[in-house]
Amino acid sequence: LSDDEDIKLMLKGSLLWKIKAPRAKERLYRLQEDGLTIWFERRFRHARSKHIFSVMHIEGVRPGRQSEGLRKFGGSFPEGRCFTIVFKGKRKNLDLAAGAEEDARHWVQGLSKLMARVAAMSQREKLEQYPCWIHDILRRADKNRDNKMCFGEVKDMLRMINIDMNDVYAYKLFKECDRSGDGRLEERELEEFCRRLLRRPELEELFRRFSGEDCVLSAEELRDFLREQGEDASLRRARALIHAYELSERAKQQDLMMLDGFMMYLLSADGDILNQEHTKVHQDMSQPLCHYFISSSHNTYLTDNQIGGTSSTEAYVRALMKGCRCVELDCWEGSDGEPIIYHGHTLTSKILFRDVIESIRDYAFKQSPYPVILSLENHCGLEQQATMARHMKAILGDMLLTEPLDGQDPKDLPSPEVRPSLSGEAHVPTRPRACSFLLQQLKGKVLVKGKKLPDLQCEPQSGGSPSGCEEEEEEEEEEEEGLQERGPRQGPGAGVALRLLWLRQAKEASEVAPELSSVVVYCQAVPFPGLAEALRDPRPCQVSSFSERKARKLIREAG
Questions:
Q1: The one catalytic residue among 135, 243, 343, 345
Q2: How far apart are CA 396 and CA 405, in angstroms?
Q3: The two domains 124-198 and 201-273 share their CATH topology (first three levels equal)
Q4: Residue 142 and residue 152: Cα distance in Å, rounded?
């Protein structure tokens, strides 16, 4: 890649504007000679500070204003000069603007090429890149630059490398490694702390069981392990794994595997219990929609805790890019007639419903072509419900499913796709009941899950079903349980007041605007009628939600 024009510009470096607030900051960004490290320089109280991040930790690059930060603060920069670097884990996006559109294009294309190079790397090649990254993490965590780390600095280091560890356990490890007893870890002590973090006692026990007293796996012993796991147990396969994952060149030459190599293998794709062929869609996708488990997200909008965390459209982007096909939108009355999304009755921040729908439009089908379900938890009045429907229709356009496919009976569920048979004709899914399912595919379609106004032409449901208000009570009951588990303790008076507020809101939300009702086609939210009724009269287009407590109660009652 050294002769690539994009890489050449990155190696030379560019002055880029970091956009994090209304006032952007100019910094120098440069690709290092290793082709995997981005170096940047910033000013802090008039002193220059140098930092790096690794290409290995970049999840994606978005050209233009395709992030919440750039849409909010990047309006003064032309869209062609803007781009966003998305990191893996919890690290926040890096929103940047170049001095010219050509520079921005070089960085977007260059980073994409470097990411493709990383994806093609072997496990060993990736491992060789970590020392530089670890060194930078340690330097950043050592705030007073004394080459020692107190417990607070160690906690910062753990956060930087995305390790979420219990403070009590982390402090226990810290004290065990603090040989000097001065409350600070020096170089060797810190190395021991990191080694303990990486320990996997259960894997060490497994290694000892097959390696014997010498604690070294021969190719024959590795073959025995593979045979017990029901895998390809040939000596050729065992030797191939040793040469792929063993870190010691001397051990590799003798067809031996040490503990570190064994753990490298077990934690790799080759050692994964998941069949790698199953990381791609391999199931029959021509069955009715209700025949599938659907990857779903709860409180999708939150990037942190559900008491005072931040709500963000970026949370929807990340969920969709991870393959979620059902996302949740908690909709509440907003100012200026615009519905908002947040965790009601908490201190979480608020985002516009309209902005969320725009993000869903842009990312719904980048990771998967299969339908996306918008699960609406509706707390809005009739006027803003109508606004929600208008936004979905205007923003999603033809992606939004607003009527049964081909005008067929909405009581029958279609399939995610049509699977052609060997003869070239569409595969017809079979069903025990005498009712044919639709064959049209739902690929690329957005479905809305929500309440629907009663259809006077349909036969009424049997009695005994809870009212709409009672259904809202169940949903709010589930939220209340979650808040009680995670939130601070409150007096009984506060709980009663909050409950009354929820009940009043549930009553208001039991009314459904015709505009919003009309976009609910195959996923009608209804109160659960009970197991006996559901089995006697199944209605595939109806969806019910209830708390775990309610689920356990239903199971007990059903015997």
A1: 343
A2: 17
A3: yes
A4: 10
Give domain 201-273's CATH architecture: Orthogonal Bundle (1.10)
Judge whether 343 counts as a catalytic residue.
yes
Round the CA-based radius of gyration of the chain to a whole number and report it.
28
Could you tell me the CA-to-CA distances from 49 to 16, 21, 157, 268, 453 in Å, in that order? 16, 20, 18, 36, 61
Nearest residue to 313 (alpha-carbon basis) of 271, 362, 265, 376: 362
- The structure tokens listed for 555 are 């199971």
Decide: residue 342, CB within 10 A, 0-12 exposed, 13-18 middle, 19+ buried.
buried
Structure tokens at 447: 């479905």
Other CB atoms within a 10 A radius of the CB of residue 380 amount to: 23
Write the CB contacts of 239 (distance below 8 Å, at least 6 apart in sequence): 219, 255
Catalytic residue (choose from 51, 291, 298, 379): 298
Q: Is 298 a catalytic residue?
A: yes
Cα-Cα-Cα-Cα dihedral sign, residues 144, 148, 150, 153: positive
- pTM recorded for the entire structure: 0.76
| Span 515-530, pLDDT tens digits | 999 999 999 999 888 8
Q: How many other C-beta atoms lie within 10 A of the C-beta of residue 205?
A: 9
**What confidence tier does 432 reach under pLDDT thresholds 50, 70, 90?**
very low
Distance CA 220, CA 234 (A): 9
- To the nearest whole percent, how much of the chain has pLDDT over 70? 81
Residue 378, pLDDT score: 95
Secondary structure E strands in 232-325 = 256-257
pLDDT reading at 429 higher than 70: no
Which pLDDT score is estimated for 133? 61
Element (H, E) at 28: strand 25-31
Contact 380, 333 (CB under 8 A): yes
State the distance between the two ends of the chain, measured CA to CA, in whole angstroms. 65
User: Would you identify the CATH topology of the domain 296-414+440-454+496-525?
Assistant: TIM Barrel (3.20.20)
Q: Where are the domains of the chain?
A: 5-120, 124-198, 201-273, 296-414+440-454+496-525
pLDDT-derived band at 123, boundaries 50, 70, 90:
low
- By C-alpha distance, which of 316, 409, 375 is closest to 525? 375
Encoded tokens for 187:
């170089």
Task: Flag whether pLDDT at 450 surpasses 60.
Answer: yes
- Look at residue 454 and give its three-state secondary structure: coil
Q: How far apart are CA 499 and CA 255, in angstroms?
A: 67
CATH topology for 124-198 is Recoverin; domain 1 (1.10.238)
Helix-helix angle 187-198:167-177, to 10 degrees: 130
pLDDT score at 158: 83
Please give the Cα distance from 63 to 65 (Å, whole number).
7
Q: What fold does the segment set 5-120 form as a domain?
A: PH-domain like (2.30.29)
- φ, ψ of residue 422 in degrees (nearest 5): -60, -30
Give start and end residues of each alpha helix (H) in 438-467.
none
Q: 139 or 366: whose pLDDT is higher? A: 366
